[in-house]
Amino acid sequence: MADSHVAGLGAAGAMAGAGTRAWYGGSIADFLAESDDSIVGKLAGRSEFDIQLAQQEAWRAEIAILRRVLEGLSGHLFLEFAIPRMGRRVDAVVLLPRIILVIEFKVGSAQFDRAARDQVWDYALDLKNFHEASHTASLVPILVATEAAAPEPRLSRAADGVYHPVNTNPAALRRVIELAALEPGRPGVVAEAWAGAPYRPTPTIIEAARALYSEHSVEAIARSDAGAKNLAVTSRRIEEIVDEARAERPVVG
Questions:
Q1: Is 174 in the same domain as 52?
Q2: Which of 109, 138, 156, 252 sits a CA distance of 20 to 30 A from 179?
Q3: 238 and 161: one domain?
Q4: 114: number of CA atoms within 13 Å, CB side?
């Protein structure tokens, strides 16, 4: 992926009739039947920022990989799906009948960077904890470094249903998906309902300020707070605690 793809969280979704947070969404069959130019055009058209050539080339590389590995599978695909609390977008989310794949591509990378691995893991954890339709789902975060040598794929599921990140490359990605499809999970995820489900984080002050000042729309983030009255009470109590601490601080000298 290119750095520019993190911007523009306020764009409307691509799946017709769904309040989705993805720039592109549809069944795997529809994705396979659609042209690259059409898909890239939809992705670029939903960004609130100018899309650089490097980003378009990264999208085309990702689309080519996804075409190969999703051939013959049933499910749905979402590209550039918003993670509002983090102010970012995950490259691809694949809804299989019983499991959700969260995929981050590093096009041109020959190594599995620790930060990139943590990034896709954070995406999966964020969906699990804050995206209402993902609370009971099993999620597999997958890091695809296009020029790296892939280790033998192994899936390790944590107690919360979020798997440990899987490092792979384009040649081995299909095998990872096949293994994930065999894992236990809850059947019957409805793509439109999943894509439009409420996202209810409680962002920190710094996270909220970062989202606001980077010109991201915060309309997609459901407000979850204690109300203005309770916040005022809390603020006053914090001020009282600070004053008490200052008054009781021992004199050093």
A1: yes
A2: 109
A3: no
A4: 0
Instruction: Give how far Cα 227 sits from Cα of 65, 200, 210, Å.
Output: 47, 15, 22
**Paired tokens of 139:** 């999620």
C-alpha span between 224 and 235 (Å, rounded): 17
State pLDDT tens for residues 210-225: 655 554 444 555 554 5
Residue bearing the bigger pLDDT, 134 or 245: 134
The answer to whether 62 and 1 have CB atoms below 8 angstroms apart is yes
pTM of this structure:
0.74
Query: What's the residue count for the chain?
Result: 253
Residues 74 and 139 in one domain: yes
What's the Rg (C-alpha) of the chain? 21
Residue 83 lies in domain: 3-199
DSSP string, 98-164: S-EEEEEEETT--S--HHHHHHHHHHHHHHHHHBGGGTTS-EEEEEEETTSPPPPP---B-TTSBBP
Q: At 53, which helix (H) or strand (E)? A: helix 53-70
| CA separation, residue 142 to residues 68, 69, 124, 200, 202 (Å) | 16, 13, 9, 24, 26
CA distance 99 to 189: 9
Tell me how far the alpha carbon of residue 103 is from its chain's centroid.
8
C-alpha pair distances (Å), 75 with each of 117, 197, 217, 227, 247: 25, 18, 29, 40, 63
